[in-house]
Specification:
about 130 residues; alpha+beta; Nucleoside Triphosphate Pyrophosphohydrolase; four-stranded mixed beta sheet; 7 strands; about 20% helix
């Protein structure tokens, strides 16, 4: 029997938490749903360089440290995406500047997560896990 190897994309996402135990979430301009900052690794790109690039592109911030937190998978009709979530260390006084991809950002705690409509259920699950809510 011939093996068929899975073709998938790898996405990396930042869990940027402030001193109030809130996570930074972004609202997508295209559909109004929320997501986490991050994106795909390009072919041949180092994982940390890719994560730094994505966060610099989306938020104009510099990442100094990233610690793996969780992994998950998103299966869509057009792709399978393996997701790696990182706890991000950056300057606590970061000045966030959004691109046209996102219309706004919010810092949300465990209670606010209940009212956020994420583009992917996996994002909500990982945020709840980090903040210790169910």
């Amino acid at each position: 029997m011939e093996e068929i190897h899975l073709t998938a994309k790898i996405g990396q996402y930042g869990l940027i938490r402030n001193g109030k135990n809130e996570i930074l979430v972004l609202q997508k301009s295209s559909n109004g749903n929320y997501c986490l900052p991050g994106g795909r690794i390009n072919e041949g790109e180092d994982w940390f360089d890719a994560l730094r690039r994505e966060l610099a592109e989306e938020l104009k911030i510099d990442v100094t440290e990233a610690k793996p937190f969780d992994v998950g998978i998103i299966v869509q009709s057009h792709q399978i995406r393996y997701c790696i979530f990182f706890i991000i260390k950056t300057d606590p006084n970061l000045g966030i500047e959004l691109t046209q991809e996102h219309s706004e950002y919010q810092w949300v705690g465990a209670e606010e997560l209940k009212s956020i409509q994420f583009e992917q259920d996996l994002f909500a699950t990982v945020c709840k896990k980090l903040l210790g809510s169910s």
